[in-house]
Amino acid sequence: MYLGKKIVVVMPAYNAARTVRKTYEEVLAQGIVDQIILVDDRSRDETVAVAKSLPGVIVEAHEQNRGYGGNQKTCYRLALAAGADIVIMVHPDYQYTPKLIPAMASIIANGLHPCVLASRILGGYALAGGMPPWKYVANRFLTFTENLLLGAKLSEYHTGYRAFSREILEKLDLNGNSDDFIFDNQMLAQILWHGFTIAEVSCPTKYFKEASSINFRRSVKYGFGCLSVGAQFRLAKWGLGRPRLFSSTKRPDGTSCD
User: Fold this and answer.
1) CA quadruple 183, 184, 190, 192: dihedral, nearest 10
2) DSSP symbols for 19-35
3) Using one digit for the tens of pLDDT, what is the confidence trace for 189-230?
């Protein structure tokens, strides 16, 4: 608990057997997390077995691989069902340090911003932490372009370390979004569309063998997807159509409405 808010950490997992225990231990060490939920997306290693051995962790295992976006949909559904007031997504591959959990939770719990991103770009940690130069250049180009299209001033849109208020997760029709990596970008665009503000905190990051990362081909697909989301957002703002991405919210029963 933090300021009377229930804090739930969700971990979208895929082949994280070697790092999930270390991530779990550091999450607990922050002292404010009420529940940890791990959703495994049909890993090929012992991720599920290791996760089930960790005291207090709720483990959900997909019978089929649903993709990164599909994994997050399950994470947020379970977190809301568990009564979360603040949901923080932490990757169990230990690429992002859980030590920022108190800072991110504090921003939301104090009513400053309903969404917080842990940015690898602020403070210059990305290249120092081992981010491949081509990914850094792509990150900067996409972020610059998306800021123009979305009318925001974020340092990056592509971090996997994020915190959300319950209000945001109940407002957005996340089930209508992609099950692939572009889910992350769609979600941020929807948050901005609905008028929510986004805060950023500087985050050191690590790139190593066990840390998850998408390959060049999928990165290119993701990049074009980001540009498409931004273009749809801008056209909708100009009144030139209203894509479903920016027209759907949820009814009280969880179904979408336009």
Assistant:
1) -170
2) THHHHHHHHHHTS---E
3) 999 999 999 999 999 877 655 555 567 788 899 999 999 999
Can you give the residue ranges of every domain in the chain? 7-248
Of the pLDDT bands very low, low, confident and very high (cuts 50, 70, 90), residue 255 is: low
pLDDT above 50 (res 67): yes
Full strand arrangement of the beta sheet holding 35-40: 57-61, 35-40, 7-13, 86-89, 162-165, 115-119, 198-202
Rounded to the nearest 10 degrees, the angle between the axes of helix 183-193 and helix 67-81 is 50
**Residue that is written with structure tokens 């921003």 in the block:** 107
pTM of the model: 0.92
Give dist(CA 74, CA 76) in Å, integer.
6
In this structure, are residues 45 and 17 in contact, taking their beta carbons and an 8 Å threshold? yes
116 φ/ψ angles, rounded to the nearest 5 degrees: -135, 130
CA distance 193 to 53: 41
* Residue 232: predicted pLDDT: 95
In the chain, helix, strand, coil percent, each to 5? 45, 15, 40
Give the pLDDT of residue 148: 98
Query: What is the CATH architecture of 7-248?
Result: Alpha-Beta Complex (3.90)
Neighbours of 76 (CB within 10 A): 26
Nearest to 221 by CA among 250, 169, 185, 195: 185
- The pLDDT mean for the chain works out to 92
